Amino acid sequence: MPAPFTPDDITRLREALADVVAAGATPGGVIVAGTADGNRHVVNAGVVAPECGDAAPDEHTVYDLASLTKVVATWLLVGRAVDAGLLDLDAPVRDALPAMSGEAPGGESTIRQLLAHTSGLRASTRLDHYRGANAPLHELLCREPLEDAPGTHRYINRGYILLGLALAHIHARRLDELAAEMWHGLGMTSTVYGPVSRSAHVAPTEQRLPGAPRIWGAAHDDNAGLLGGIAGHAGVFSTPADLASYAERLLTSHGHRSSALGEWLHASLVPQAEIEPGLERGLSWALNSHGQVAYHHGFTGTSLYLHPEAGRYLVVCTNAVYFGTARARIAPLRALALKTVSAG
Predict the structure, then answer these.
(1) Left, alpha or beta for 271 (phi > 0: left; psi -120 to 50: alpha)?
(2) Do residues 109 and 119 lie in contact, with contact meaning Cβ atoms separated by under 8 Å?
(3) Do residues 304 and 249 lie in contact, with contact meaning Cβ atoms separated by under 8 Å?
(4) What whole-number distance in Å separates Cα of residue 146 and Cα of residue 126?
(5) Residue range 234-244, pLDDT digits in tens
(6) Contact (CB, 8 A) for 206 and 221
(7) Residue 300 has what pLDDT?
């Protein structure tokens, strides 16, 4: 049986969320604390955004997931492709991309290394620097020299951009189409690649320039924006309710290792590299407590935590990047979330 959250757990989470809102770290937010059997506690605080008046966020508010795209879209699509024999974790990504001419050191990075951020690829990614180039994006990314030795952990978005391009190539379909079909099968009816329409149900993010329109319904990530909002590293929008459904499906599969999804999750919780003492990287997921808890953050102020053995999860959705650098001030909420889900 899953380990349920206690009333004290929920009270502490509610108070922590209210505190970060009161401190001006985010206009508002939603937390879903749940278990694999569908038992959910939903807490919220604040407003969706001042532009939306007094509308309070709830489990159906749409948030820009930012880097949660990596685990909500790309990671699972890669797992399905591996299961179907379309990808080999230990084969170079160049095998899954259109043919490249000349030297392309990045193309030798394996699918496993790209997932685990151990490829050695250049960490800084500025797709705007490629404007006017006379080669396809995958080739431009792969031509650049490595920045670290393969096997060195460094969080790198371009690896997931390459994975997104590889997935589209091996399936001969757009990445957003592949993801939409997958989410439909998982019952995630509100999860999409943007852009999405502006409304009081969609949380705006940042105002980059004084007087300019706030980013609202379009990907906050610049590189994803340059790719039309459809990328392997960012660009997905979803709701706390859909993320909760996703977490429940993953946790349920973990108890059935014979299923493809359960097998993929189990393999992904095997440490691939150390991030720092006490924290390791699996395939996509960060692993705490010897792989007991898997989690991932999104730059905009989102997080997803899984405790597979205890059958419990936490979803945290905020639009903390609404206040720019104030995003760092949700750190206490994230720390409490990790501590709370780990206690099961």
Answers:
(1) beta
(2) yes
(3) no
(4) 15
(5) 999 999 999 99
(6) no
(7) 97
